[in-house]
């Protein structure tokens, strides 16, 4: 059974998205980089309180903010670390 503490809070979703906005220099530049309007980015921050699932990889590519930080409910950090280790091993081989 899941506990409330197992569910990421809205703050856990918003902070990485705010960081992505800051890295790009604002909502409009982030929107341009991911093919969305400034208004849409504003809705993610203020209404949805998270990045949409279908935009996470684009935001990660545009900003370097990891997918497991943007949406830990979809990309659990432990699984992400395991995948990252496998990719590192393949690069080293």
TrEMBL record:
Task: Report the leader peptide range.
Answer: none
Task: Quote the SUPFAM superfamilies the UniProt record gives.
Answer: lambda repressor-like DNA-binding domains (SSF47413)
Q: Name one Pfam family in it.
A: YdaS_toxin
**TM segment ranges:** none
GO terms assigned for molecular function: DNA binding
Q: What is the protein's given name?
A: Helix-turn-helix domain-containing protein
| Native source species | Neiella marina
